[in-house]
Amino acid sequence: MSFSAPHVIDAQVLTQVPAGLRRKVPSEWAQANKPGHVVDCFIEGPCFDRQGNLYLTDIPHGRIFRVTPELSWQAVAETGGWPNGIAVHRDGTLWVADYRRGLLRVDPASGAVDTILGHRNSESFKGLNDLVFDRNGDLYFTDQGQTGLHDPTGRVYRLRSSGQLDLLIGNAPSPNGVALDVEQKVLFVAVTRGNAIWRAPLLADGSVSKVGAFRTFFGTSGPDGLCVDQDNRLVVAHASLGGAFVLDARGEVTHFVRSPNGSTVTNAAFRPGTSTLVMTESQTGSVLQAELPAPGAPLFSHA
Predict the structure, then answer these.
(1) Which pLDDT does position 267 carry in this prediction?
(2) Quick check: 119 and 102 in contact, CB under 8 A?
(3) Pairing of strands 7-10, 253-258
(4) Which one of 29, 147, 177, 247 has the lowest number of neighbouring Cβ atoms within 10 Å?
């Protein structure tokens, strides 16, 4: 171990949810997750399309936002549920992990929403959270629900491009963000209520084995969204510690990307082809931006 203090990188506010798109009305999501508060927006799921547009979800109000390169905001779809993570497919559609409705697909041009997977073997999901494509188009996604240390039954699935659904992990206390290493041989899962990152080696037959705690954290919440750079560093957005941690291949913290306002940093993504990281700070409805040491890993959507 190096025992060196992490480099602190101060993020800047890139843009915020405009006043005209904020909904200051009660929501069932806020009643359950932010009791006593009227939440006018709670943004998550940052991802980019080939044109440089940034897509975000607004969980409590069921919306998908598009932020253009000129920082113009548009509401492009309403899912009728609580959308969380987004992954862009190579065909340009948005695949959305929706807590209420399951795995959805959104056409960003028309706003049309259709269901890819609403249940598993007629059993409803607990509540989907986040997702990532591998280079072959197989999709990994988390089924978090309200699980935690009191109920460690959160799940991690893989939906193969053939349509086969595999249950990889079934005992996680609040599985949240998910990412693959550069070689696509390791799956990382943010286990929020366990305040840890789990490392799951992917075997040749597609199964996982010897899943372990790669890094543990602390705080009133825990690690949330994940992404990876081309040097195999893992970026971990932490939902109560005011920023994102950058971990090397040994799990050591090399950098900390600090939020300038608000401590609820829920997710992060690299602008494709660059070392620019964007993060969602959901408490204030802000999109943050910072420059990291290396570009993000290649994405299925942009290959």
Answers:
(1) 98
(2) yes
(3) parallel
(4) 29
Rounded to whole angstroms, the Cα distance separating 79 from 101 reads 8
For every residue of 120-153, DSSP letters joined together read: ETTEEPS-EEEEEE-TTS-EEEEE-TT-BTTB--
Other beta carbons within 10 angstroms of residue 21's beta carbon come to 17
Render pLDDT for 227-277 as a digit per residue (tens, 0 to 9). Answer: 999 999 999 999 999 999 999 999 999 999 999 999 999 999 999 999 999
Q: What is the pTM of this model?
A: 0.97
The strand pair at 253-258 and 83-88 is best described as unpaired
Give the whole-angstrom CA distance, residue 277 versus residue 288: 8
User: Looking at residue 158, what is its pLDDT?
Assistant: 98
> pLDDT tens, 75-84?
999 999 999 9
Radius of gyration of the CA atoms of the chain, in A: 17
d(CA 99, CA 84): 7
Q: Are 25 and 41 in contact (CB under 8 A)?
A: no
Instruction: Note the pLDDT of residue 303.
Output: 86
* Contact yes or no for 175/129 (Cβ under 8 A): yes
Domains of the chain: 17-226 (2.120.10.30)
Query: What is the bridge-based pairing of β-strands 83-88 and 113-117?
Result: unpaired
> Which two structure tokens, joined as six digits, stand for 225?
């969204």
At 28, is the secondary structure helix, strand, or coil?
helix
Q: Per residue, what are the HEC states of 46-90? A: EEECCCCCEEEEECCCCEEEEECCCCCEEEEEECCCCEEEEEECC
